[in-house]
Amino acid sequence: MRTPFVAANWKMHKTVDEAVDYARSFLPLVDAVSDVDIVLAPSFLALPALATATGSSRIGVAAQNVSAEPQGAFTGEVSLGMLRASGITHVIIGHSERRQLYGETDAGVNAKTRATIEAGLSPIVCVGETLEERESDRTFDVLDRQVGEGLSALTPEQVAALVVAYEPVWAIGTGRVATPDQADAVHRHIRQQLASQFGEASAAACRIIYGGSVKPGNAAELMALADVDGALVGGAGLEPTSFAEIVAASRPVRRYNQKIMLSIVLTALYVVVCLLLVAVVLMQQGKGGDIAAAFGGSGSQTAFGARAGATVLTRATTVMGVLFMVGAMTLAIMGQRGTGSILSGVDGPGFQQAEPATLPVDSAPTEADEAEAAAPTDAPVEAPAATPAEPQ
Ligand code: 13P
Hints:
CATH topology of the largest domain: TIM Barrel
CATH architecture of the largest domain: Alpha-Beta Barrel
Largest sheet: 8 strands, parallel, barrel
Structural class: alpha/beta
Radius of gyration: 27 Å
Number of strands: 8
Helix content: 40-55%
Strand order of the largest sheet: 1-2-3-4-5-6-7-8
Bound molecules: 1,3-dihydroxyacetonephosphate
Strand content: 5-15%
CATH superfamily of the largest domain: Aldolase class I
Order of helices and strands: EHEHEHEHHEHHHEHHEHEHHHHH
């Protein structure tokens, strides 16, 4: 079971005081939630205050960007060592706004992702196609390139612990959310791409979250998709109550219940169809016990009228037969894909997909790590030659 991961990206909103006020309101709302990894991503300026305000809670704090360089003459940049020293646990990398407005490239995303992992923080790597790319049928090509190059040279273990955020650019801040079918198809495609690049086990453990106009009203539907493991929330994450509602909609217990309910309803319908099928077969003259006789007629022909009986029963039998086959196929397909299986939500040795990914609190650097990070010459962060200059 992958632990759901839900992050609020505040972008360029909220002063330091507003960030702290948010934490005061938000923390009690999610106090009882221990089965979702929750992360807040304020501006750089509010990071230390928010890390202090979230304190010993399970809530992680993410930067919205970082430099891949360990230190030096990079005006306007912030290093991973600085983030670690302020208790920051995560970094959003390659958000489409940074790619589009500040010229970030896949090579730059790769450098930042590797540096972030090396520094002991957890990257949230964003990918997603523009409207023009989707309309020209290039969605999967674009995603394959972003995933392929952005995660290049990572180990299968690093990918297993990674969070990839699929954010279709056309859905960001537009109120236009991807349909469940669109999100489902893309998330499945990304997981297949990860499997071919890093192996099945890494792909199964990696969390792929959705971003783009996620709201309390549409979160549950998106979270119910088998390959959607959480959300990266913009606008609806600016308000503690609405973000808490999205967190609640992402809880695995809720997803598990939805699966069970769907499975129970479909199975009950299927049982009714089976019983009706048996009944209409038995009611036909000469078949089984000719049940029509039990209702006072001398046979099915009498019960339904000579001509009508044959017509009604024949039609009913055909309809039930078709429903029987469709029902059998639906339940078989659901069982195959794991969406309806009661066992799919069960933790246990036989059903565990992979090692659970690291929780925010677990990824906090140790004192030894910090000492190591404080000595830049001991552990320089490797950056490929292709690292682009930040135009910021
Ligand atoms: P909205 O939820 O406002 O569409 O923003 C999504 C986003 O960009 C999160 O990173």
